[in-house]
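Subject: UDP-N-acetylenolpyruvoylglucosamine reductase structure
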Amino acid sequence: MDPRFSLEQNVSLKDRCTYRTGGSARYFARPLNTEELGAAVAYAAQTAIPWFVLGKGSNVLISDAGYNGLVISMEKFNTIAVDAPLGAVRAQAGAELQDLVARCCESGLKGLELLNGIPGSVGGGVYMNAGSFDASISDCLDFAVSLTATGVCVTRQRADIEFAYRSSTFQHNKEIVLEAGFQLTHGHAAELSAIARSIEQRRRDRQPCELPSCGSVFKRPPPGGYAGALIEQAGLKGRRIGGMRVSEKHANFIVNDGTGSSADVHALIDLVQKTVFDCCGVLLEPEVIFLGDFNG
Ligand SMILES: Cc1cc2nc3c(=O)[nH]c(=O)nc-3n(C[C@H](O)[C@H](O)[C@H](O)COP(=O)(O)OP(=O)(O)OC[C@H]3O[C@@H](n4cnc5c(N)ncnc54)[C@H](O)[C@@H]3O)c2cc1C
């Protein structure tokens, strides 16, 4: 065991993801700082254990068999620093995106308010290039600090990071996002908070926010299509497998009635892909990230 960080074993992941499903992590670490994080990654490399970084678990489907590797939670990296006069904001990767949006709005800083209600972390948001209502987290990102697989901290300016729809450089380079810096413009705190509240209301009106899910299961199919519309067209609204069903309110959401498993979600994803392809000739690409083995 490496004394530079503490390692837990057989930690349930069910309450660490928004589907509320899945098994346990064989190893689990919640490093307090970059040194401990680096030590955890180095330990995994030395012992040939696969590792996975977990944010708020709002875009992962964790196998019911769990993960036979090391899950690294970023929950302790959670500070947000706002310099209102300069419009500069720094947020650590484990900070909640919703807290970041709230802090910016109440400080009269404009640029992130349309992302209100995305239930992920800042690091998960940068990794996924999360976005909503035609805005993306990359729109006002200034820089990101990340840790390479060999333990080196790298600061990249926005221009040196590739972002596209639900995609970022970090999906390809296996680096861990430590911190993100944003450059925002000045606005009126009350107006920005009102916009953020209205976005939240629009989410409640359109999405099944009251049930466990991971948000949109599939990416938008090009060009300019909507996965939800295709799923509805294929007659799949309300289709159920076990305790999971395609939401009647928003067809691109799969929701858990409280008894569902990850295997149910996986089977439903498969069914939706096949049915939509047969009906509309479009192969939907999952947005959700799969963790663990789904072949068993
Ligand atoms: C009700 C609901 C509504 C949603 N609405 C939206 C929406 O409007 N728009 C949208 O884009 N998404 C939406 N999502 C999906 C999800 O919230 C986003 O994808 C979010 O950015 C994921 O962040 P997370 O911290 O939960 O990441 P996780 O789910 O924990 O992880 C997702 C991926 O990011 C990686 N990751 C996490 N942290 C880091 C890090 N620090 N460094 C490197 N990699 C990291 C993980 O390894 C994993 O591959 C919604 C989800 C739910 C449940």
